[in-house]
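Task card 7
Instruction: Convert sequence to structure tokens.
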Amino acid sequence: MKKLIMMVAAVGMLCLAACDSKPTQKAQKESTEIVDTAFQNKVAGEYRSYDSKRTLVLTADGKVSSKGFKTDYTSWQLAAKPVGNMADIFLVRQGIEAPVKDKGTVDLKEGIVTTKDESFRKSNPKLSE
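Output:
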């Protein structure tokens, strides 16, 4: 009986040790950033709110300077491949622990960036035909 109890205890400890071990290599999330330089060059420019109190300046290299916002945006990136003259974008701002991505859209035909239910119109839109 003692042998049986010792054997069960040994097998139980072996099972617990095997279940508790963690894999040595974890699968890392790959950051897939969509890049379309031709579209980014067309989007680049200064966008102003209706009352001209807030301004977004998007550059072709993915940087943003913003004026009149509570938080400053630092960069922008495409959320999906552009379809025609429209694309979904992320405006990135610094969060407490990690960067925060605010979703927005770009309409090249109209020269408008929309984010957080507010539209910004390009200062001198070059309407593509």
